[in-house]
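Feature request, filed as a ticket because there's no other form

It would be nice if the structure record came with a short human-readable summary line next to the tokens. Right now we just get the raw output. Example of a typical job, pasted below so the devs can see what we mean:
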Amino acid sequence: MPLLEIVAYSYASALAAQLGGADRVELCENTAEGGTTPSLGTLEAVRELPGIKAHVMIRPRGPGRDAETGMVGAAKSASYGAEAHQVRGFEA
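Raw output as currently delivered:
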């Protein structure tokens, strides 16, 4: 059965996705930067929404951050936090 996944850039957009019938959100922040790893606070709030799963964008924050200057460290840190919050999927 197909799932409806919606990109959510905030708790408010994740809530709107849930109310609109989404099964899952791809959670990220900072639309101006093309989507970055969400804060743990945002992740915690979205995890409290009933009936919706979250995949988390793992991408470093800030301009000039690329694979050689922080992607590995950012991904590692974010994935540990997400794992602690029982996130089941990641987007990179």
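Something like this underneath would help us a lot:
The longest strand covers residues 53-57.
The beta strands are 5-8, 24-27, 53-57, 89-91.
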